[in-house]
Amino acid sequence: MARMKFLVDAERCIECNGCVTACKNANEVPWGVNRRRVVTINDGIPGEKSISVACMHCSDAPCMAVCPVDCFYRTPEGVVLHDKDICIGCGYCFYACPFGAPQFPQAGAFGLRGKMDKCTFCAGGPEKDNSAEEFRKYGSNRLAEGKLPACAEMCSTKALLGGDGDVIADIYRQRVLKRGKGSEVWGWGTAYGAPGGQQKPAAQQPKS
Amino acid sequence: MRARTAVFAALASIAALGIAGCGDAPQELAQKERRYQGKPDTNPWDSPQFGGKQAEWERAIQARTQNQNEYTRVE
Questions:
Q1: Model ipTM?
Q2: Mapping DSSP to helix (H, G, I), strand (E, B) and coil, where does residue B14 land?
Q3: pLDDT tens figures, A169-186
Q4: B75 to chain A nearest CA, in Å?
């Protein structure tokens, strides 16, 4: 079974924002909501690095753990999605997420928050596949068409890789061997566990 | 008489404390089982394009993922 993951190669990202534009276009994301964004570290200083950030669809997603209405679920291929019909827009997931992925559209006056919106790995949501209802709530469902997320497929330098974790890790490994540097994968340890695929052991509950 | 009353009162208060001790409810924090509360979703291979053929969907995704490897195209 394929396990969907994102991989960001900071050595290759040229901060073109093509991924951001592709995401906005493919999912018709409203103003004020950025499912994906490009962050530059040490901007303007020689050696600056850019990374494309969105929901990483974590193996042990903290958003799922803190949601008070349990609106999150994980698909068999490892994509973390949520049901907007029961989301109450409380914002707990935003505080829990290490990537700042959950977004909240302004739903009215006085800064009232709407239902949470985030990257779906272009896998839609819990509505009929490729229906108008699914597109309106969650955006496009490219995975059901046998395609990968628009951001990764659109990336001109292939700095952003998306797809089966084993395959993209092999692509990246080959790339690092060729160039001989830049083996650090930003965010993988946080999203998918410690390097080498080892999950950190869960903290023991103190016994009373 | 007064001494008997005092002894009876002391025994009654000890018995009351003992009963209160027996009624102490366990105060361990119960871990609620977390379960998705929303609507069920279908698998991506259940779309009309793949008609439930998971292997076919996985082959399509694998091929698509390999398209991101430019070394297979330029070498």
A1: 0.84
A2: helix
A3: 999 999 999 999 888 888
A4: 12
Q: Is A12 on the interface with B (CB under 8 A)?
A: no
Q: Measured between beta carbons, which residues in chain B are less than 8 angstroms from residue A69?
A: 37
Inspect the interface and report whether the beta carbons of A129 and B38 lie closer than 8 Å. Answer: no
pLDDT in tens, A15-64: 999 999 999 999 999 888 999 999 999 999 998 999 999 999 999 999 99
The answer to whether the CB atoms of A65 and B34 lie below 8 A apart is: yes
Distance from CA of B25 to the nearest CA of A (A): 14
DSSP per-residue codes, A104-117: --B-SGGG-B---B
Q: What is the CATH number of domain A4-192?
A: 3.30.70.20
The CA distance from A180 to A77, in Å, is: 32
User: Rounded distance, CA A67 to CA B37, Å?
Assistant: 11
- Residue A113's pLDDT is 83
Q: What is the pLDDT of residue A203?
A: 44
Contact A82 B38 (CB under 8 A): yes
Q: Which residue has the tokens 């290759």?
A: A12
Domain ranges of chain B: 44-75
Q: Do B47 and A70 touch (CB under 8 A)?
A: no
Question: Which residue in A72, A76, A96 sits closest to A84, CA to CA?
Answer: A72
Of B37, B40, B46, the CB nearest to A71: B37
Rg of chain B's alpha carbons, rounded to an integer? 36
Which of A22-36, B10-24, B54-68 is predicted least confidently?
A: B10-24
